[in-house]
From TrEMBL:
This is 3-isopropylmalate dehydratase large subunit. One of its GO terms (molecular function) is 4 iron, 4 sulfur cluster binding. Belongs to the aconitase/IPM isomerase family. LeuC type 2 subfamily. Residues 15-290, 291-415 form the Aconitase/3-isopropylmalate dehydratase large subunit alpha/beta/alpha domain. Keywords: 4Fe-4S, Amino-acid biosynthesis, Branched-chain amino acid biosynthesis, Iron, Iron-sulfur, Leucine biosynthesis, Lyase, Metal-binding. The gene is leuC. It comes from Methanothrix thermoacetophila (strain DSM 6194 / JCM 14653 / NBRC 101360 / PT). Its cofactor is [4Fe-4S] cluster.
Amino acid sequence: MGVMGLSMAGQTLSEKIFSRAANKEARAGEFVMASIDCAMIHDITGPLAVRGFYEIAGKGARVWNPSRIVILFDHQVPADSIKAAENHQMLRAFAKEQGIINYDVFSGICHQVMPENGHVLPGQLIVGTDSHTCTYGALGAFATGIGSTDMASVFATGKLWFMVPQTLRLVIDGRLRRRVTSKDVILRIIGDIGADGANYLACEFAGSAVERMSIAERMTMTNMSIEMGAKAGLVEPDRVTMTYLKEWLTEEPIRGDEDAIFEEKHWDVNDLEPQVAMPHRVDNVVPVSRLPHVKIDQIFLGSCTNGRFEDLKLAAEVMGDEPVARGVRMIVIPASRKEYMRALRAGLIEKFMEAGAIVESPCCGPCMGGSFGLIGPGEVSLSTSNRNFVGRQGSPKGEVYLCSPAVAGASAITGEITDPREI
Ligand SMILES: CC(C)[C@H](C(=O)O)[C@@H](O)C(=O)O
Ligand code: SF4
C-alpha cells in the first residue's frame, strides 16, 4: 500500500493511544515522544529509578506530576532482608518528599493494585518498571515495562520516546470447556508461536472467547504477552471493561478502527485441553493429558498472572473437601488485599488452611524466587505464575511447571500434575 493508502487507513487501538499521547497522528513504525498518563515503580526497581531521577534532575528536584506516579511494595514484603527494608524506607521517604500516592507493604502485587484502584483507564499510556506492566492492557490501555533509567527521565519530564508497534490480533473463538481457563489459552498460544513469536508487537486479544471472559481472565492473558516478546497486550474495551471500571470511567473508551492495518492469527478453543509449560521454557507447552507422571513438591497458587479471587475460587472448587496430598507444600497468595478480603469473605482462606495449605499476605511470594518459598535442588514446583526458566523459584537444580489454577487445585490433592477434568 502506498503512502496515500496508509494515511487513509484507519488506526489500531495502539496507534490511537499513541496519537493522543504524542498529540499528532501516530502510525506503526514511527518514533514518537509521548506523554505518560501513569508511571509505576515497585520495591525492587524503584530505588534505581529514584537514584536515576536525582542524577538527571539534581538534588531537591520535583517529579513532573506526583499524582501520576504510583509506588508499590510487593516483591519483598514484608521486608525479608535488611536490604529490602532499606529499599522500602527509601521509597517511603521519596513518596513523602514528593507527595506521591504510596501504597504500603500489604496492598498487594502492583499489577493487581493498579487496575483495581483506578490507576488504569482505557486509552491511557502507562509505564512501569516491571515487565508485566503489560497486564493493564486488559482494560484497553497501552501499558508496557520500561527500565529504571527510562523511568528516571519519565519522573523528570513526564515523557518518553517510543516506536509505535505493529499490531498482531490474536483472534480466539469458541467456548472453553469446564475447568479450561484463559491461562490454558495463553499457554497454548505461547507454545504455538514461541517465546519470541510476538517480539515488539502490540498483541490484541479478540474473538468470541475473549468477549466472554471476565477482566480477571483477560488480565491472565495480557499479563503473559511479554512471555512471547510483545511490547503490550491489549483487549479492546467493551461492556465487561465498562462494568469493571464503572467507578472511574467518565468518557466513552476509544477503540481501534475496523479498517486499521494489522496481522491476524486464529485459534479455536472449543476442544482446548488444560495446558502445562514444562521446564525450563514458557513455550515448552503440552496438554496436561500428554504429560508423564510428574510428582510435585510445592504448589504456588498466586502471582499477578493467577492470584485473583476467581483463580482461588476455581482451585478451591476443584479441590473439593480433599486435603493437600501428603508431602506437598501448597502456598496460596491472593494478589491483593482486596482479593484476599473477597476470598476471606467467601470462606476460601479457611478452606485452604483446613486442607493443609498455607495462605500468605498479598505479595509476589515465590514467583521469582527473590523472597520466601524457594525450592531446593531436585524439587519440582507447580506454579500458576508466568515464568519457569532455570532457577526462577530457587535452586537452579529445581524444576518449575506452569499451569492454571484448576490444574493447581487438582494436583494439590493428588500430589502429581493432574488433569482437573478427571477430578
Ligand atoms: C523484579 C522485576 C524487574 C521483574 C520483572 O520485570 O518482571 C519481576 O517482577 C519478574 O516477574 O521477573
Ligand atoms: S508476581 Fe511474579 S511476575 Fe508478577 S510482578 Fe511479582 S515477581 Fe513479577
